Amino acid sequence: MKLALFDCDGTLVDSAGLIHETMRRTFEKFGKPEPPFEDTKAIIGLSLDIAIARMQGRPHVEQGDVDMTAHYKSLFSVVRQDLDYREPLFAGIREMIDAISGREDLLIGAVTGKSRRGLNLVMETHGFDQHFIVARTADDCPSKPHPAMVTECCDETGMNAAETIVIGDAIYDMQMAKAAGAKAIGVAWGYASVDELIANGADAIAYHPNDLLRHFS
């Protein structure tokens, strides 16, 4: 029996455009320079308040970051509707999830910097809610790369970290997996480079969702 824990943004769904537009409007609202798209991509995976602080060159969250976080959250669904963003699945993701969802030797979960509401929306939109039996979000645990998201999913499912595989596109996913004692698989279709993923602990790289299947056997 294995536990596969998927990151969401940049791994299952391509949400960079939606996140950046919401971030751009948030920075504009608070009179701050518009962040480059690459800066937004670099923080995807972190909890939102920490991400906003990092984008302004600060390692720790200040009150202004908390205020911007609240505004971002209030704006996110508006931007999603305004621009008809649907956080599309990356090519091959649906087929890969369909291939593993019926297996009795594999449990599927999510570990994400999204809010619980945001994750639920993605799961419902793409019909994945019935396949993912455990999840931890930014509402539940400290931000990645803290290992709590992984260890709590392991505890809930009765699995050991040694039998757990974390799949993600960010360096924070790799660091979180290693901190928890789990296997780390980086995906090449997300927002970090392959070199960055390897440098931060990736045990393997998947270049297409089908590549993941061999790691679940």
Which key terms come to mind for this protein?
single chain, alpha/beta, Rossmann fold, 2 domains, 6-stranded parallel sheet, globular
Summarize the SSE layout with pairings:
Blueprint: E1 2-6, H1 16-29, H2 37-43, H3 48-55, H4 63-82, H5 93-101, E2 106-111, H6 116-126, E3 134-136, H7 148-157, E4 164-168, H8 171-180, E5 183-187, H9 194-199, E6 204-206
Parallel strand pairs: 1-2, 1-4, 2-3, 4-5, 5-6
Helix pairs in contact: 1-4, 3-4
Structural class: alpha/beta
* Beta-strand segment tally: 6
The averaged pLDDT comes out at 96
CATH superfamily of the largest domain: HAD superfamily/HAD-like
Most strands sheet:
6 strands, parallel
The percent range for strand residues is: 5-15%
CATH topology of the largest domain: Rossmann fold
**Alpha plus pi helix count:** 9
Can you describe this structure?
With 217 residues, this protein is an alpha/beta fold. The N and C termini lie close together (9 Å). The chain has a 6-stranded parallel beta sheet. The radius of gyration is 16 Å and the shape is globular. It contains 9 helices and 6 strands. 44% of the residues lie in helices and 12% in strands. The model has no long low-confidence stretch (mean pLDDT 96). It has 2 domains: 142 residues, HAD superfamily/HAD-like (Rossmann fold, 3-Layer(aba) Sandwich), CATH 3.40.50.1000; 69 residues. Helix 1 crosses helix 4 and helix 3 crosses helix 4.
